[in-house]
Design brief:
302 residues; alpha/beta; Rossmann fold; GMP Synthetase, Chain A, domain 3; 2 domains; 6-stranded mixed β-sheet; 3-stranded mixed β-sheet; binds guanosine-5'-triphosphate; rRNA-binding
Length: 302
Amino acid sequence: MTSSTEGHRSGFACFVGRPNAGKSTLTNALVGSKVAITSSKPQTTRHAIRGIVHRDDAQLVLVDTPGLHRPRTLLGQRLNDIVRETWSEVDVVGFCVPADQKVGPGDKFIAAELAKVAKRTPIIGVITKTDLVSPDQVVEQLIALQDVMEFAELIPVSAVDGFQVQTLTDLLVARLPEGPQLYPGGELTDEPEATLVAELIREAALEGVRDELPHSIAVTVDEMIPREGRDDMLDIHALLYVERPSQKGIILGHRGERLKAVGSTARKHIEALLGMRVYLDLHVKVAKDWQRDPKQLRRLGF
Ligand SMILES: Nc1nc2c(ncn2[C@@H]2O[C@H](COP(=O)(O)OP(=O)(O)OP(=O)(O)O)[C@@H](O)[C@H]2O)c(=O)[nH]1
């Protein structure tokens, strides 16, 4: 890497799109490491976690936002504010539409919101999940997408088989202003480790649970301390909050089997993230209506 910034580009990009459009998975594919949180359930991404693509000629910072949705709670409103703020601040936006779903009102809603808050930002139309459909369907989707809004570019990609992921990176980088590195090389995300750990636990807890549950789960990491007398092991104490006792039952599972599995999955991911062995102490707590209570929201980091 040269010290001169001549010809070097740097800046921010984010992916927008309906829930489940594949934004988080695409972020991971571009960054090449698991920092943003994915799950098969919609609206699970909560923090604006930044993944960073480092190249000799550019640094592309990806901001992963939650999906925009009709706000029903205080939390919902705050999430939407975060989304709009992010959209207005980035240098380029990737508008994701899955290849296997009809372009519809949800996409037009997002396009209208983008037109309001990001008037001058170049928008790249991204057809995601091309591995799920035939080439003909990809072409049809490209045509349908052109009706939604004016795009700076259009590109079909698949995060699963890697199709055009590199080309998409090139298109995004080309829209960044010239400038020096914004973050030191090698850094994956600027979120504190405890936040990432909490997200990994949340992700594991959401695997395979009902559609209504995602917004009812929050995780706090209360302690991360090295095991006494050892430098290769970390003790992590975390709490998983649900809103109702019935949800606690779902998380725990029969005789606590499910929580055990959640802990074990989360522990493996945390060990991979931190590069050390982890003992995870995980408990479930009912915090009634935490989504509607400003005091509890603050305590849980929102
Ligand atoms: N076959 C296929 N599946 C994909 C691809 N990208 C994402 N998926 C799947 O689509 C689902 C949703 O992906 P996410 O990346 O979580 O979608 P998202 O847009 O971030 O969703 P929200 O966080 O709810 O807004 C997951 O089950 C992914 O595994 C792809 O390129 N091909």
